[in-house]
């Protein structure tokens, strides 16, 4: 009998993250997930191991790593993101807004990945970080949503610093675009539901097990240009 696979989803209490938790649980995975301000009361599958986490605080991530010590995960997904100020103009932004944007979208995800990497299963483990197609200089030539896009472009670059350590445990590093999704951030005009995005994400993270390397893909498996 095959051993039950385990996934750790960081940032999972709503939107895409919660839908990913639901999709992995539906496929029989053992799911560990984090929330920032409370376990979701709706759409929470049974058996999920929930932990509180403030990802922008290094001490909180260290505490989580201690709580999970001794466990290993076949997939670790770092899922976080805010859109930043609605105006998306540097001249109209104050330093605190910009600091929050880059801390949440850029620094905290990679720092969390560094801290949690020892929990990744060797050989076939997948470490994935949610980014965006807008973070690509090639895929976003008009610089749509420039402040948000810049934070994701910086995330893409910092994610590369993880590649050597992931390779050392024969794992696979994935920078992941979940698509434009109907969430609080994506809005109602988005073409994808969270469930559609999550189904693709689970399929891709499972398919990339054992491949090695660092890859920039979307939820449907399309390779994106950096």
In short:
The chain has 226 residues and is α/β, with parallel strands linked by helices. Helices cover 35% and strands 16% of the residues. The model has no long low-confidence stretch (mean pLDDT 94).
What does this structure look like?
By secondary structure, this protein is α/β, with parallel strands linked by helices. It is built from 6 helices and 7 strands. Strand 1, helix 1 and strand 2 form a beta-alpha-beta unit. Helix 1 crosses helix 6 and helix 3 packs parallel to helix 4. It is globular and about 55 Å long.
What does the secondary structure layout of this molecule look like, with pairings?
Layout: E1 6-10, H1 15-26, E2 30-35, E3 49-52, H2 58-67, E4 75-78, H3 95-116, E5 126-130, H4 146-159, H5 163-168, E6 172-177, H6 194-207, E7 213-218
Parallel strand pairs: 1-2, 1-4, 2-3, 4-5, 5-6, 6-7
Helix pairs in contact: 1-6, 2-3, 3-4
């Amino acid at each position: 009998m095959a051993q039950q696979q385990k996934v750790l989803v960081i940032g999972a209490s709503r939107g895409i993250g919660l839908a990913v938790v639901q999709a992995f649980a539906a496929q029989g995975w053992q799911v560990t997930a984090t929330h920032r301000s409370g376990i979701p009361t709706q759409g929470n599958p049974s058996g999920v191991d929930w932990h509180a986490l403030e990802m922008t605080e290094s001490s909180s991530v260290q505490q989580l790593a201690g709580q999970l010590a001794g466990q290993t995960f076949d997939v670790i997904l770092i899922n976080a993101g805010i859109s930043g100020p609605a105006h998306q103009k540097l001249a109209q932004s104050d330093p605190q807004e910009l600091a929050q944007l880059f801390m949440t979208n850029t620094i905290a995800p990679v720092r969390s990945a560094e801290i949690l990497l020892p929990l990744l299963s060797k050989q076939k483990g997948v470490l994935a970080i949610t980014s965006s197609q807008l973070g690509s200089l090639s895929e976003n030539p008009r610089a749509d949503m420039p402040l948000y896009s810049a934070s994701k472009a910086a995330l893409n670059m910092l994610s590369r610093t993880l590649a050597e350590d992931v390779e050392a445990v024969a794992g696979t590093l994935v920078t992941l675009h979940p698509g434009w999704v109907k969430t609080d951030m994506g809005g109602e005009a988005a073409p994808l539901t969270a469930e559609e995005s999550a189904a693709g994400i689970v399929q891709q993270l499972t398919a990339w097990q054992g491949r090695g390397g660092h890859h920039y893909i979307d939820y449907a498996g399309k390779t994106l240009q950096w």
